[in-house]
Specification:
The chain is of the alpha+beta class. It has three helices and four strands. The protein has one domain: Tetrahydropterin Synthase, Chain A (2-Layer Sandwich).
Length: 150
């Protein structure tokens, strides 16, 4: 192997060794949702083709979750089947509730539980309504640039 090939091999090895490793799981949960402001906010209750005032009343969704969490080696220090079952049980056991919360609120509630059990890890949570519209929040270990006070 010549010097250039050796340097490229070493570079790939360094990149691989420093890579952020994540596992992810998905699950679904039925919930009742409402967005009270939709009834009276003129930007939402617009009385035209963009009117979403119906969102102000309770309605059913199947919330879809994708949860990724940092792991520290390739033999997985968090087993994803166990992780998924634990997440599902947070809702089945009543620890967390979906009803009347936005996708972002649901994500933040779930993050608090995960970070309490698995501290000091990058976590990424996507919550969607019916697998169609939703939010993704990336919980960094340091403050994101857009929230730093300069």
């Amino acid at each position: 192997m010549d010097q250039r090939e050796q340097a490229l091999t070493e570079k790939r090895s360094r990149i691989k060794d420093k890579a952020r490793r994540l596992i992810w799981v998905t699950f679904r949960k039925e919930g009742i949702h409402k967005y009270p402001a939709a009834i009276s906010d003129p930007k939402l209750a617009s009385n035209d083709e963009y009117d979403v005032s119906f969102l102000g009343y309770p309605h059913r969704h199947i919330f879809h979750f994708t949860v990724a969490i940092q792991v520290f080696h390739n033999d997985r220090d968090i087993e994803f089947i166990q992780f998924k079952r634990w997440l599902e049980n947070l809702y089945a056991g009543g620890t967390l509730e979906l009803n009347f919360k936005s996708c972002e609120m649901i994500s933040d509630d779930l993050y608090e539980q995960i970070a309490g059990r698995y501290p000091n890890r990058y976590i990424e949570i996507t919550v969607s309504e019916d697998g169609e519209n939703g939010a993704t929040i990336k919980y960094e270990l340091t403050e994101p640039y857009n929230q730093l006070v300069l």
